[in-house]
Amino acid sequence: MKALKWLDEHFEEFFLVVILVLISCVELVQVIFRNLSFVDALTWPEEFCRFCWIWSVFLSLPYTIRKGSMLRVNVLVDMLPQAIRKSVNIVIDLINAAVMAILFVNAIQVVGGIKVSGEASPAMTWPMWIIYSIMLVGFGLGAVRGVQMAVIHVMHFKEKELTTLEQTMADAAEEAEAGKRAEGGEA
């Protein structure tokens, strides 16, 4: 059960960190080969890093849904009464899930078409359907996370939810308190 909880909270985050580390290491190797080596620069790092950036974009979709940090403007929603605000959030979660599911279905067709074509990447000669299959992972997880967030919002419907302004002020107060504790520990 502990492993499932960890996966729920950190699955996408783990892979996003791994991808960022991979990009950094590969680019460092490329810089070393380009500037300090007597051989020509490597041909594959730029393409590999481009693929990693694409993968990070698609993995960030379910991550932002799960963390509740999808880009949206809450000014109008924050002015609504608590019950209506919670209902709007549930509807938004379900719309997110539906959009991700539609994109997932379309991604199946795209990846299938690329697989049939046999297209390969120029520098690494990887099959492009493998590169594009990250769309399936991102959109599929996004749909699952959208449903998951709707369920979480329904389960916590009766609990008071802070507005964006109240949450920002609470976060600032918490940071100030943490800063005071850190200063007190250093003295």
Number of strands: 0
Shape: flat
Structural class: mainly alpha
Oligomer: single chain
Low-confidence stretches: none
Mean pLDDT: 89
Total count of helical runs of at least 4 residues: 7
**Percent range of helical residues:** over 70%
Supply Rg. Answer: 22 Å
Strand content: under 5%
Compute the separation of the termini in Å: 42 Å
The major β-sheet equals: none
Domains, number:
1
One letter per element, helices H and strands E, the order comes to: HHHHHHH
Strand and helix layout:
Layout: H1 2-36, H2 45-67, H3 75-78, H4 82-117, H5 128-132, H6 134-155, H7 164-186
List keywords for this structure.
7 helices; single chain; 187 residues; mainly alpha
Tell me about this structure.
The chain is mostly helical. The protein has one domain. It has helices at 2-36, 45-67, 75-78, 82-117, 128-132, 134-155, 164-186. Helix 1 packs antiparallel against helix 2 and helix 2 packs parallel to helix 6 (134-155). The two termini are 42 Å apart. The mean pLDDT is 89.
Nutshell version of this structure?
Helix content is 79%, strand content 0%.
